[in-house]
Amino acid sequence: MGFAEGTVVPIARTRGEIEALVEKYGASRFASGWTDNGVAGISFAIKGRMVRFELTLPTMGEAAKKAPRGNRYYATDSQKKKWIDGEGRRRWRCLLLAIKAKLEIVETGIATFEQEFLGHIVTASNQTIYEALKMQESGQRLLPPLEASP
C-alpha cells in the first residue's frame, strides 16, 4: 500500500496546505496550475530562489492497468474515473509530504536549502536545474545512467 492510498482529502485542500506550508517557511509568492498534457505544478519564491515542482497526473491508460476491476476482465469507465480521482488525491498528498520533509530538513540544519531543492530551483531560462543538467545542448547526457559492474 502506497503513502496516502485511500485518502479522501480533496486536491484543493492539499494544494492549500502546500501554500500555507511554504508561506510558513518564508515563501513570498505561490502559484499552482495544470496543463492540457496531464501535468500539474506549483511554484513558489523562497530564500531568494524560484522553486517549481511538477506532478504527473494519472491517466486513463494507467487506470486501465491499475484500477480495480471487480469481477470483470476490464475496468469500467466508472472504475477508471474513481481510480484516477483517488490516485490524483494520493499524488498531491505525496507532494505535500515531500515539500514538508525538505523544509524540515533545511530548518533542522541537516542540509542546506540548495542541497534539498537544487533540482527544483528555476534558472533564468525558466528550466529547473534538473532539466538543465539532464541534457546538454550537444545531446550529451550530463547525468548518465549507472553502468552495470562487470
> Could you describe the largest sheet, including whether it forms a barrel?
3 strands, antiparallel
Radius of gyration computed on alpha carbons: 18 Å
For the record, give the distance between the C-alpha atoms at the N and C termini, rounded to a whole number. 35 Å
What is the count of β-strands? 3
Mean pLDDT: 89
| β-strand amount | 5-15%
Subunit organisation of the chains: single chain
What structural class do you assign from the helix and strand content?
alpha+beta
Q: H/E order of the elements?
A: HEEEHHHH
Give me the side-by-side strand order of the main sheet: 1-2-3
Q: What overall form do the CA principal axes indicate?
A: globular
Number of helices: 5
Low-confidence stretches: none
Approximate helicity band: 40-55%
Q: What is the domain tally? A: 1
Task: Give the secondary structure arrangement, pairings included.
Layout: H1 11-24, E1 29-34, E2 39-46, E3 49-56, H2 60-66, H3 77-108, H4 113-117, H5 129-134
Antiparallel strand pairs: 1-2, 2-3
Helix pairs in contact: 1-3, 2-3
Outline the structure in words.
- There is one protein chain.
- The protein is an alpha+beta fold and 150 residues long.
- The chain has one domain.
- The protein is built from five helices and three strands; from the N terminus they run αβββαααα.
- The chain has helices at 11-24, 60-66, 77-108, 113-117, 129-134, and strands at 29-34, 39-46, 49-56.
- A three-stranded antiparallel beta sheet has the order 1-2-3, covered by helices on one side.
- α1 packs parallel to α3 and α2 (60-66) crosses α3.
- The longest helix has 32 residues, at 77-108.
- The radius of gyration is 18 Å and the shape is globular.
- The two termini are 35 Å apart.
- The mean pLDDT is 89.
